[in-house]
C-alpha cells in the first residue's frame, strides 16, 4: 500500500493492492510517512474501507479528530459486543460511535447528564440494537474512564440502527422512529386495540418490515413495477387492512415526501392484518 495523504501521526489515507482507497490507523503510522511512500505494515493497527460511495478524504479527516485511545476502545468493544465483525472495518459506524463516546466522556467528566427522550421508543422498536448497545456500553466502560451512564445505550442503539442506512445522518433515524410510532398509533386507533404488546410476533414483524421499507425508500429501491398478482391478492383478501395501509402510506408521504408504490402498500397491509389479528387473538 502507498500513502495518499497523511492526516496526523496516527491516521493516513492510502491506496491498497486492489487500487481502492483505504484509511489506515495506528500509533505513529503517519509520523514518518509522506505521499507516494509505501506504508510500513508493522504500524498498521486497523484498516477501514469506505463503502456506499462515502468520500474517503472526509472520513479520514473525521477519524483524525478522534483520539487513538477512544477509537481503539470502540473498535474493540464493537467486536466484543457481538456487532457483526465487518461493521468494525467500516469507518462510518466506528466514527459515529467513537465521536459520540468522545463527547459523552467529556460530558461525564464535567458532570453533565443528558436525558434521551426516545429511550422508551428505542427499547420497544429496536430491541435487538438496544441489547447490542447495552453490551457495547459495558465493553466501552471496561476500557475508558470516566464511566458512562446506562442512558448512553439509547444513543448507541440509534447509531447501530442508523448503520443500515446510506446516510450517516442520525436525523433520518429520528424521523423513522417518529413515523413508526405514528403508524402504530393509527393502527391502535383504527382497530380499537388499546395498548397492545409491541413485542408480539405480529408487531415485531410489522416494525421490521417498516424499517426495511425505510431503507428501500432512502436507497430509491421500493418494491414496484407492474402490479404484482400477490399484491392484488393481498388487497382483495384484506380490504380493511389495505385502507389502513393507505392511510399509513399518506403519513410516510407527508413526513418523507415519498409516495409508496402499490406493492409497498400491499405488503404493508399484509403486516397490518397480521399484527391486528395477533392482537385480537385471531389466527393468521
Automatic annotation (TrEMBL):
Provide the GO MF annotations for this entry: RNA binding
Q: Which GO terms describe its biological process?
A: regulation of DNA-templated transcription
Question: Among its keywords, does the record have Metal-binding?
Answer: no
Domain of life according to the entry: Bacteria
Arranged from A to Z, the UniProt key words for this protein are: Repeat
- Alphabetized InterPro entries for the sequence: BglG_antiterminators, CAT_RNA-bd_dom, CAT_RNA-bd_dom_sf, PRD, PRD_sf
Q: Where do the PRD domain residues begin and end? A: 58-170, 171-282
Record has Hydrolase as a keyword: no
Recorded protein name is PRD domain-containing protein
Q: Which organism is it from?
A: Streptomyces xinghaiensis
Taxonomic lineage is:
Bacteria, Bacillati, Actinomycetota, Actinomycetes, Kitasatosporales
Amino acid at each position: 500500500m502507498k500513502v495518499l495523504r497523511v492526516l496526523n501521526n496516527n491516521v493516513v489515507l492510502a491506496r491498497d493492492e486492489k487500487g481502492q482507497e483505504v484509511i489506515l490507523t495506528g500509533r505513529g503510522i503517519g509520523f514518518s510517512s509522506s505521499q507516494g511512500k509505501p506504508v510500513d505494515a508493522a504500524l498498521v493497527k486497523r484498516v477501514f474501507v469506505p463503502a456506499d460511495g462515502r468520500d474517503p478524504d472526509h472520513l479520514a479527516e473525521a477519524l483524525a479528530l478522534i483520539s487513538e485511545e477512544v477509537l481503539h476502545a470502540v473498535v474493540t468493544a464493537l467486536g466484543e459486543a457481538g456487532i457483526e465483525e465487518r461493521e468494525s472495518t467500516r469507518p462510518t459506524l466506528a466514527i459515529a460511535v467513537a465521536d459520540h463516546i468522545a463527547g459523552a466522556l467529556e460530558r461525564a467528566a464535567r458532570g453533565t447528564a443528558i436525558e434521551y427522550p426516545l429511550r422508551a421508543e428505542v427499547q420497544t422498536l429496536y430491541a435487538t440494537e438496544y441489547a447490542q448497545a447495552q453490551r457495547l456500553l459495558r465493553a466501552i466502560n471496561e476500557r475508558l474512564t470516566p464511566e458512562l451512564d446506562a442512558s448512553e445505550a439509547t444513543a448507541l442503539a440509534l447509531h447501530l440502527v442508523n448503520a443500515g442506512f446510506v446516510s450517516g445522518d442520525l436525523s433520518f433515524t429520528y424521523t423513522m422512529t417518529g413515523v413508526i410510532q405514528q403508524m402504530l398509533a393509527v393502527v391502535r386507533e383504527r382497530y380499537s386495540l388499546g395498548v397492545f404488546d409491541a413485542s408480539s410476533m405480529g408487531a415485531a414483524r410489522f416494525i421490521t418490515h417498516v424499517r426495511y421499507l425505510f431503507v428501500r425508500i432512502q436507497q430509491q429501491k421500493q418494491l414496484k413495477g407492474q402490479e404484482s398478482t400477490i399484491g392484488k391478492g393481498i388487497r382483495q383478501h384484506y380490504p380493511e387492512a389495505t385502507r389502513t395501509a393507505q392511510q399509513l402510506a399518506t403519513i410516510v408521504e407527508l413526513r418523507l415526501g415519498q409516495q409508496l408504490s402499490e406493492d409497498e402498500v400491499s405488503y404493508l397491509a399484509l403486516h397490518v392484518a397480521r399484527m391486528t389479528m395477533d392482537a385480537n387473538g385471531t389466527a393468521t
